[in-house]
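protien #1 (seq + structre)
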Amino acid sequence: MTTAAAHYTAALSLASELDMRPLVAHCHFGLGRLHQRTGKPEQAQDHVATATAMYGEMGMTHWLENIEKA
């Protein structure tokens, strides 16, 4: 799982640098789900909250529904 977290973190960094907000939100969502699966609820909550806020700001309602389902 460390490799997955490293890849998500690298993607998050690059997406942030390139100002690709939807991808940044997806990376936060992915990291949140990963941390949920690996027993890190506080880190998971932080990433999911960030993704939720970003999806809401961008009007990405489909992804907000996915977060509610997860």
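ok now protien #2
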Amino acid sequence: MFSGISQNFWINLIGFQIIWWVCVLFGNTWLAITWALLGCHLLFHREPISEACYILICATIGFGIDALLTFKGIFIFQESVFQDSSLKESSSIPPLWLFALWISFSATLRQSLGFFSKHYVLAAILGAVGGSGSYLTAEKFDQVSFGFTTWHTGFLLAFIWLILFPLLIWISHYIPRGRYAKVV
């Protein structure tokens, strides 16, 4: 416990990739694996309280933006938080696997993506390309469809991620560090 192994670049990056693929391929059906891996991340982190606060803040921001995009009809999910995948009805609430994915992504921001904490322009460029690309890939696996054309949605997501990724990195400077850091 608290060994810091989950902060290792490769372990953190591979853990995120596993969760990304599990969420995108299996949706809500394999959430137990996702939650277990995320629990291990905190269990094996040197600063679990600070990390949990940071993850929760970033995941809430990201999921909130995705919920707004879903509510506005830009994202269309067949699964939602309140139904299982067998119902196949469109919902204006994103599925739980997307929140798990946001938590997982947030767990990489101080570890495997920590390099960007001093490179905001590069973070903006990578965010625009990688962030939007992640949704475009999820669309190819039929986990999300778009209310606009793929091009329009891609450009909108690139603009959002151009700002969002550096913002999430920037927030890390304002979350107290330390195993027993006070949370204001």
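The longest strand covers residues 75-76.
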